[in-house]
Amino acid sequence: MKIAVIGGTGLIGTRLVARLAADGHEVVSASRATGVDSYTGEGLAEALAGAIAVIDVSNSGYLDERGAKDFFYGSTLNLLTYGAAAGVRHHLALSVVGTDRLARTERGYFAAKAAQEQLIRRSGQPYTIVHATQFFEFLPHIADAATSRDTVRLADALVQPMAADDVAAAVADTATGSPLNGIVEFAGPEQFRLEEIVRRALQMRRDPREVVEDPLARYFGTDLDERELLPGSDATIAPTRFDEWLAATGRPVGGASAGSAPAAVSAPSAVSAPSAVSAPSAD
Ligand SMILES: NC(=O)c1ccc[n+]([C@@H]2O[C@H](COP(=O)([O-])OP(=O)(O)OC[C@H]3O[C@@H](n4cnc5c(N)ncnc54)[C@H](OP(=O)(O)O)[C@@H]3O)[C@@H](O)[C@H]2O)c1
């Protein structure tokens, strides 16, 4: 099956392209680096020719709100238009758990993702929107966006993050199945306080920034309630735990609490994948 991966050179895209190719699919890795610009349309007709599925794992910057809205709107419209012309039978886009809730802040990143989702839902084309929780690999970027004078200020929220490899596996499986014409959620196997897991991710990189919980801190332009980043009870739970991922990345672990068990604060209540529940509930 021919599959076009938009954003095929990104964090998720590279993993996805490799996985789909290993499964025997004909994969087109499309991004500006490979001569395809989904925003301007350059190279898009050629990239989508003969594709059965289009997987959109492209991204704009997280901090440029206007840029994000322009990008996701223009790019998604192009992908849907060129996709329909090419006879694409499944449009899949990767988005973020809680986007609908977090989009209430009109000019934030999540408003841009919500507009992307709305365009897809209203396109009349067969689609699936995959909602994933925060990637382990993304935690340092959360810190960067929340840093002021060497202090990282994070909302008192819970997260249930997952490994980029697990995201790619979830997206690949979903894309090669039938379109669901709806949203499907994926999340990691453990919950953490946002501040705790970001601190651990920085320790791993020997990053000296102080991390503090601040109830008024915003998350990519949006205020945050405690459970808003968490998936619903029917989310599929990915296998890789944070400690396993840390060990597999092979980076030096620093800091006083490095090497200790992560402060997972509760287990998901409903899971649909094996080896997901192991942390005691502290809710
Ligand atoms: N970060 C998280 O924790 C998280 C959680 C859930 C969902 N998501 C979603 O996951 C998606 C992928 O994230 P990621 O971290 O893998 O992104 P990423 O590493 O930043 O990669 C973005 C990709 O988009 C491509 N791209 C950018 N502008 C393009 C354009 N005009 N035309 C074609 N390709 C373009 C980039 O390649 P070029 O620069 O070469 O064009 C790159 O391949 C995003 O939509 C994000 O909302 C993220």
UniProtKB/TrEMBL annotation:
Q: Per the record, where are the segments of Low complexity compositional bias?
A: 258-283
User: What sequence ranges are listed for the domain NAD(P)-binding?
Assistant: 7-174
Which residue ranges are recorded for the region named Disordered?
251-283
**Extent of the signal sequence:** none
Q: Which GO terms describe its molecular function?
A: protein-containing complex binding
Q: What protein name is recorded for this chain?
A: NAD-dependent epimerase/dehydratase family protein
Instruction: Please name the taxonomic classification of the source.
Output: Bacteria, Bacillati, Actinomycetota, Actinomycetes, Micrococcales
